[in-house]
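Quick one:
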Amino acid sequence: MKKTQRKRRKQAANLTPKGLQIRDLNNREVFRDPVLCAQFLRDYTGISLLKDIRPEDIEDVSQKYQAYLGTAFESDTVKKIRLRNTDAGRENIPLYMISLIEHKSNVDYNVSMQLLKYMVCIWNEYAREMERETENITSRKNFRYPPILPVVYYEGTNKWTADLHLKDRIMLNDTFGDYLPDFTYKLVRIHDYTNGELLDRKDEMSLLMMINKANAPDEIRAFWKNIPKDKIDAIIKNTPYPTLEVIASVAWNLLMKLNVPPEEAGQYIDKIKERQMGYWFENMEKLDIQEERRKTEEQRKKAEEQRKKAEEHRRKAEEQQERAEEQQKRAEEAERKLKEKEEQEIRVIVSLCQRFNAPKEETILQVMENYNLSYVQAREKVDLYLNT
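Output:
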C-alpha cells in the first residue's frame, strides 16, 4: 500500500507545473517553513511577546540538536527565535521553541520527558557557546539561560490524556515535589478549533490546520462545502512561493485521501499555483470518489446481505422440505409395516379357525371384529388365506 502511494505521488510530481514541487510532506516540514511557524507562534501560543514575530526572526536549528539526541527525534523541530523589545531590557534575546508533532490517533504519554531532553540539550549548548565568548560566564550571578517554549502539536482525533506537567511522570512527586524539576508544555490540538475559528485568522497556517483536520470522509466534505471559496483565495493571494509549495503538498495528501486519480489531482494543484484554490470548492464534490466508493460498498453490502438472507431462506425451505419428505417416508413405512403385521395376523386367525373346523362365517366375523373391516373386506381376506 505504501509503495503504491509513493508511486502515485511520484507520478503527480511529473504532472504538476514546473517550479511547484510536490513532495511527501510531514508536519515537521510545515513547522520548518518560517512563514507558517511565525503564524503559529502569533496565533496559537497565547504569548503576547510573540504577537509581532516575523519569519526573519526564526531560525531552524533542529538538525543541531537531533545530532545529539539521535534519529528517534527526527519528526521534531527546534526553532531559535529572536525576541525584540522585551521587558528584560535587552534586545535580541533568544527564545527556543521545541515542537513535538503528534499526528497519531494514540497519545504519547512520555512527551514531557522527551521535551526535557531537548531543554537540557539546548541549555548545555547555549552554555558552551557563551563560554566560548566569555570564559566562566555561566558561573556569574547575573548569567541567565534562555527561555524555551515547549509545544505539542496534536492532530489526533482522540482526546489528549497525557500529563501536562513533568512532575506527574515522577513517582512520589507529592513528597519530593520541591526537589523535582517541573514545567508544562503548550498543547495545540487542531480538533479543538472549529473551521470558522481557524478561518477567522486569515493565514496559511490556519488553512493547513483546516486541511489536516479533514481525515474522515464527513470531515472532508464539510471542509469544502462550508467554507467560502473567496476567503480561501484571499488567504493565498500573497503567499510566498515556498509556503505555497507546502500548501500544495498538504492539499495533495488530501486529494490522495479522496483517491483522486493523479492526473486530475495535478489539475487541482495547478490551481493552487495560480492562487485559485477556491476552484476546489466549485468542483470538489464530483471528485468525492471515496464517498462514491463508500456508497457503492454500502449498496454491495446490502445486496450481499439480501442475497445471504435469500440463500438462508432457500436453505431452510429445502431443509423443511427434506424433513417433510423424510416424515412422509417414515409414515409410509410405518403404515406398510402395520399392514404387513395385520395381514400376518389375519392369516394366523384364518389358519386357526380352519384347524379347529370353525365355520367360515364365524371366521369372517372374527376378522371383522379384530381389524375393523367391513363384511366384504373380511370375506375377501378369509377367501385369500383359506386353504393356504
